[in-house]
Amino acid sequence: MTDLLSVRGLRVSYRTGRHTVPAVAGVDLTVRRGEVVAVVGESGSGKSTLAHAVIGLLPEHARTEAGTVLFAGTDLLTGTDRHLRAVRGRGIGFIPQDPVGSLNPVLPVGAQVAEVLHIHRRATSRRDALDQAVDLLDRAGLPDPRRCARQYPHQLSGGMCQRVLIAIALAGRPQLLIADEPTSALDVTVQRQILDHLEVLARDTGTAVLLITHDLAVAADRAQQIVVLSQGRVVERGPARALLAGPAHPYTRRLVADAPRLTDHRLESGAARPAAGTPLLSVRGLRKVYRGTPAVDGIDFDVARGETLALVGESGSGKSTTARLLVGLDPPTAGAVRFDGADVAALDRAGRRDLHRRIQIVEQNPYAAMDPRFTVRQVVEEPLRAFRTGDRVARQARVAELLDQVALAASVAARRPAELSGGQRQRVALARALALGPQLLICDEPVSALDVTVQAQILRLLARLQAELGLSMLFITHDLAVVRRIADRVAVMWAGRLVETGAADDVLTGPGHPYTRSLLAAVPGVDRAEEAPVPGADRAEEAPVPGVDRAEAVLNGGVSGVDGQAHHGRSDTRSR
Amino acid sequence: MVDLTAPALAPLRRFDLVLCGLWLAVVAGWAVLPGVFSRQDPLAGVAAERLQPPSLRHLLGTDHLGRDLFARVVHGAALSLQAALIAVGVALVVGSAVGLAAGSLGRWADALIMRVVDVMLAIPALLTALALITALGFGTVQVAVAVGIATAATFARVMRAEVLRVRAAPYIGAARCAGSRGWWIALRHVLPNTAGPVLVLAALEFGAAILFISTLSFLGLGAAPPAPEWGALVSGGRNFLNTAWWLTTLPSLTVAGIVLAANRIARELEHRRD
Amino acid sequence: MTRYVAQRAVRALFVLWAAFTVSFAMLYLLPGDPVSVMLGGSAGTYTPAQIDDLRSQYGLDRSVPGQYVTQLWHALHGDFGTSIRTGAPVAPMLAQALPQTALLALTAFVLAVVGGLGIALAATSSRRPAVRQVLLSLPGIGTSVPTFWVGLLLVDFVSFRWRLLPALGNDGWQSLVLPAVTLALPCGSVLAQVFAKSLRDTLREPYLDTARAKGAGRARVHLRHAARNAALPAVTLSGIIVGNLLAGAVVVETVFSREGVGRITAEAVLGQDIPVVQGAVVLGAVGFVLVNLAVDAAYPVLDPRITTGRPVPRKEADPRWSI
């Protein structure tokens, strides 16, 4: 008996109103002892549902319709509650998606780790349980575990919370660990450290891992076996390297092709190279202080005409704040912004309003940025109406033209944002931004909440539009692989400052600053054997990258959470 | 409150909604055309038919003066519903205006207004209403206005929260980026998006207002005696508690039924908004 | 921590002052002449001289700010004036009646908390949908039936028909049971609604999945993890609940003919006895403020996020309320 976990013909569906929507439609899956298996899929593929179904943690409106889940030879679906409870924690450990929300806010984390030991009678006394918990926290890589054990989740960073959850999952010494997107809510550098640590712990204890991820590169880095899931079905499976090298199924092939990589090339826009001369946008000494804490701490950069500058940084680095300052949604504390040669601060009311014709923004979450009561037509028409562009008929024609430009069917115009998919919404947001024919487009994480295939489509669309319309772009992102595809130049932002600026090719192949290097090293899919080890890879998340502490402090100080949202786009697949 | 979201219960769920709607329509009918529902005189009694239990002739029995209780309940609907509508209207208008002002003016005006609202919420609504009635005097309209003002603070709070929520929403920022002007944003974005929750609250408060007003009327603060307000009917029946149960129980059940139905519909509205 | 408590205490004092001011505004500034209000329908039988006398006796001949300052000064010294109907000083009158009402409110509070939380917990942790549905529909009914009728119904059955407990008066615990149950019903129902909703929301939180994934049983998940977190919004309601228990005493003490602050208030309103009504309003605010202070003191123990730095959006208590 080498199969630790064997799922056969599993079917799970969700009830919404009077309909039942299948989420998992007959999946077979095998995990052998000590093996790492990755389940890869886009949102809505059923990967998270599959993980939850295995340990019986489906939400109320989900129903397991058929199949067996054999764990160590016993079916968990037909077994008793008591049996299932005995398996949870002791046989199977679970690491959830959202590290902060997955810890009880009113209990010290040490007690939450110790609870596993109490439940499964692995401790002789309360004292003993707590000592073991401290030991587990230590092994999970938390600095000063004795102190941490007494702290509450809100006193720890996201990465530290995820380490606590790893300690909880390993506390019962399980044979299988299910990790459901364990790092997608975290910054890339932290992500890498956590995954490294998890891999080492699992290998040392001989624990098998079922890793659920949307990221093919992560799966390839970490797993021996990959199972590709699409619309509740397994479309392809096989050894990680073989599958990645020669994907057989068209879906997998598209997934592999669309996944952004550092080895990519810039999407050919066909546009003339950026012209020299006066830059379109020129930022000098820009500073924004929230409640005494600088979120943007004196940055300088230019965007030339027809150029794409990528502003790269992790959450709390101040990149989204910069975007808000540039479009005038927040006033800067200090600094000068010149657009097309004119000082923006010196403009009068009418001049500032007129600036909206020339600078437009596309945000990460297009859904929140559209009035839920408006139709797509009204959304796209709003800027035209605001600037009294043409009469009703002319405006309607322009809306149709814009929708066509972003490759949306004309029929979409009558629908409301809630009825659209994430990619469609981002196209609508793009159409609205282009309505007035701006010269500069600021894109704030425009693709980070999207699945890779949709992401690739939007990036291609952006490149095409830039060529057609001669746009300049400021592209804000945390994802260096995306930068590779779209940017001419890169500015790396860290704790409110720019640490490195240069041509994309130079920065991405020969980074000068240590922070840029650690960012690059953290990108999954880079062959880790050839790379230099990340400085202070493990347990280092609080110290070696000196900015993270500060960046988190900025966030904790409550800097409007603008940047904080940056990486949470992908979290809750269960709610779908 | 009942979670009837199970698909199997869907027809049942619609059925009980329809029932609630019909029942409220009938009660509204009592208020508008009482003569159609009861031909008996609500004020003049027949001495020979005193304290009769419910029968076909007197659906809800008669009181100590031989007046038909059903006629009194039907004719009382106009007074009681009118009072509830005034109360909710006053609360909605005053509360929304105050909340809108607090939410849009911001800064010290917001702080000042909300401190006052907090204090209004700190004093129990019944005591506020009693104090207002002491000053305004007795009567249906006075009671209604007092209840309205006493509950206005709740509306102010919800309205302010909604205005702040919507104003902070990214789509307002997007509208500003699109070059839309302040009045357009207020009219086309803020107002329509705040109205929903406030109107749902108004629906919820309607049932509460009926209960509130009947309580004040029970305490003897509403319309002068012969007028058949529901609360006053119950109060009048107290003296005959152990001889004529119907005098207290049946008007009370009517009130409870209306409040239940109103709450049921209000919760459905709330549910649909979510 | 000291700062936290000090802040709350200052806020409490502010609320008391403001409650006094609001009640003054309602009673003395609204259109209508306080003296004719006090004299009720009999104003016509007094000569203008007598009315002027009354005016100066109650200080109503002075300017409004002057009246306010004098009244506030007196109130600070525990003097709320004298009753217009009986001529007795208001403060001792209310103080004398307070213990009975406090006892009633306290008993009702305990019943409401135990009953309300109990029903909510039983409903959400029940495995049977039918039981859950029935239990969850009870609070909705509890908030819809008029309190005065519940009181009358209890008197009719328990006292008159079954002769188990006395119907009226203030003698011993037997006479306390029915009024306390009546008073507790609407408050307990609201508590049950708030707690049940909060429990349902909490049970969907990811950290409960973490607890289940540890192998925790139903009882541990519900009691150790869900109940404590879900109780927070219900706890913030306590101040409003106690305020409303004092207000509800107006109705309940009238129905059961009990001596107490509520009955005094009801009679004062009927007699348009302004100083007594004002005293009662301020007393209601005192109850609210004291309970809120207690809640504020207890809150950090229940929720560690309060005192350890980071501001956490504390769930606002739902101010919707019906008596």
UniProtKB/TrEMBL annotation, chain A:
<dbReference type="InterPro" id="IPR050388">
    <property type="entry name" value="ABC_Ni/Peptide_Import"/>
</dbReference>
<keyword id="KW-0067">ATP-binding</keyword>
<dbReference type="GO" id="GO:0015833">
    <property type="term" value="P:peptide transport"/>
</dbReference>
<feature type="domain" description="ABC transporter">
    <location>
        <begin position="7"/>
        <end position="256"/>
    </location>
</feature>
<dbReference type="GO" id="GO:0016887">
    <property type="term" value="F:ATP hydrolysis activity"/>
</dbReference>
<keyword id="KW-0547">Nucleotide-binding</keyword>
<feature type="domain" description="ABC transporter">
    <location>
        <begin position="281"/>
        <end position="520"/>
    </location>
</feature>
<keyword id="KW-1003">Cell membrane</keyword>
<dbReference type="Pfam" id="PF08352">
    <property type="entry name" value="oligo_HPY"/>
</dbReference>
<keyword id="KW-0472">Membrane</keyword>
<dbReference type="GO" id="GO:0005886">
    <property type="term" value="C:plasma membrane"/>
</dbReference>
<dbReference type="InterPro" id="IPR003593">
    <property type="entry name" value="AAA+_ATPase"/>
</dbReference>
<dbReference type="InterPro" id="IPR013563">
    <property type="entry name" value="Oligopep_ABC_C"/>
</dbReference>
<dbReference type="Pfam" id="PF00005">
    <property type="entry name" value="ABC_tran"/>
</dbReference>
<dbReference type="GO" id="GO:0005524">
    <property type="term" value="F:ATP binding"/>
</dbReference>
TrEMBL record, chain B:
<keyword id="KW-1003">Cell membrane</keyword>
<feature type="transmembrane region" description="Helical">
    <location>
        <begin position="198"/>
        <end position="224"/>
    </location>
</feature>
<dbReference type="GO" id="GO:0055085">
    <property type="term" value="P:transmembrane transport"/>
</dbReference>
<dbReference type="InterPro" id="IPR050366">
    <property type="entry name" value="BP-dependent_transpt_permease"/>
</dbReference>
<keyword id="KW-0812">Transmembrane</keyword>
<feature type="transmembrane region" description="Helical">
    <location>
        <begin position="112"/>
        <end position="133"/>
    </location>
</feature>
<protein>
    <submittedName>
        <fullName>ABC transporter permease</fullName>
    </submittedName>
</protein>
<dbReference type="Pfam" id="PF00528">
    <property type="entry name" value="BPD_transp_1"/>
</dbReference>
<comment type="similarity">
    <text>Belongs to the binding-protein-dependent transport system permease family.</text>
</comment>
<dbReference type="GO" id="GO:0005886">
    <property type="term" value="C:plasma membrane"/>
</dbReference>
<feature type="transmembrane region" description="Helical">
    <location>
        <begin position="79"/>
        <end position="100"/>
    </location>
</feature>
<keyword id="KW-0472">Membrane</keyword>
<keyword id="KW-0813">Transport</keyword>
<keyword id="KW-1133">Transmembrane helix</keyword>
<dbReference type="InterPro" id="IPR035906">
    <property type="entry name" value="MetI-like_sf"/>
</dbReference>
UniProtKB/TrEMBL annotation, chain C:
<keyword id="KW-0813">Transport</keyword>
<dbReference type="Pfam" id="PF19300">
    <property type="entry name" value="BPD_transp_1_N"/>
</dbReference>
<feature type="transmembrane region" description="Helical">
    <location>
        <begin position="102"/>
        <end position="122"/>
    </location>
</feature>
<dbReference type="InterPro" id="IPR035906">
    <property type="entry name" value="MetI-like_sf"/>
</dbReference>
<dbReference type="GO" id="GO:0055085">
    <property type="term" value="P:transmembrane transport"/>
</dbReference>
<feature type="domain" description="ABC transmembrane type-1">
    <location>
        <begin position="98"/>
        <end position="299"/>
    </location>
</feature>
<feature type="transmembrane region" description="Helical">
    <location>
        <begin position="175"/>
        <end position="196"/>
    </location>
</feature>
<dbReference type="InterPro" id="IPR045621">
    <property type="entry name" value="BPD_transp_1_N"/>
</dbReference>
<comment type="similarity">
    <text>Belongs to the binding-protein-dependent transport system permease family.</text>
</comment>
<keyword id="KW-0472">Membrane</keyword>
<feature type="transmembrane region" description="Helical">
    <location>
        <begin position="230"/>
        <end position="256"/>
    </location>
</feature>
<feature type="transmembrane region" description="Helical">
    <location>
        <begin position="134"/>
        <end position="155"/>
    </location>
</feature>
<keyword id="KW-1003">Cell membrane</keyword>
<keyword id="KW-1133">Transmembrane helix</keyword>
<dbReference type="InterPro" id="IPR000515">
    <property type="entry name" value="MetI-like"/>
</dbReference>
